[in-house]
Amino acid sequence: DAKTTQPPSMDCAEGRAANLPCNHSTISGNEYVYWYRQIHSQGPQYIIHGLKNNETNEMASLIITEDRKSSTLILPHATLRDTAVYYCIVRVKVGGADGLTFGKGTHLIIQP
Amino acid sequence: NAGVTQTPKFQVLKTGQSMTLQCAQDMNHNSMYWYRQDPGMGLRLIYYSASEGTTDKGEVPNGYNVSRLNKREFSLRLESAAPSQTSVYFCASSAGGNGNTIYFGEGSWLTVV
Fold this sequence. Notes:
- The complex is a heterodimer of chains A (about 110) and B (about 110).
- By secondary structure, chain A is mostly beta strands.
- Chain A has no helices and 10 strands.
- Helix content of chain A is about 0%, strand content about 50%.
- In chain A, a hairpin with a 4-residue loop joins strand 5 (about 55) and strand 6.
- The radius of gyration of chain A is 14 Å and the shape is globular.
- Chain B has strands spanning about 5, 10-15, 20-25, 30-35, 45-50, 55, 65-70, 75-80, 85-95, 100-105, 110.
- Helix content of chain B is about 0%, strand content about 50%.
- In chain B, strands 2, 4, 5, 6, 9, 10 and 11 form a 7-stranded mixed sheet that branches.
């Protein structure tokens, strides 16, 4: 099963771009990379996902390397409300069940 | 938009008591999930249902049972609650299959004393 590695914490200044890295060196060809965030133990909030190509939506951009072994989530203009735990996830099967396997994520702190 | 709705939001149980967490989604999704999250940890999959009438065990199924009542509803039952089951429980749903988004509810905080 593909697993991900993220730094445990990062700081970013308000108004700057936040770049969150993720390594997934054992990802297989048909596995998507998903990003979620969680604020104060609320339900995880979907941000973005991708397979091979870079993706952008109203919240963020996802840059996936050509070999697909790593990716970067970019929050273009971070605000204080972006302080949260960010999870990079490769969708895998756990036993017979299809789902998302969450690690400990990156605690992103936006500094005023 | 309701999305994924869980009840109750908070519950305190005594050891050995039973209870059921309810979950409903209004997005016509095939797949539904139950996760738990312990303090400082990521979410762990308890059970999964790919469609009405089917369920599969996840990473931590012991001590739990589930019922996929219909396409909308997926319940999680604790038959004899233990302090180790004190956790935040999240229900989720998706259209199913690789590449589809999984949407989460707001969580149910359960304390077993």
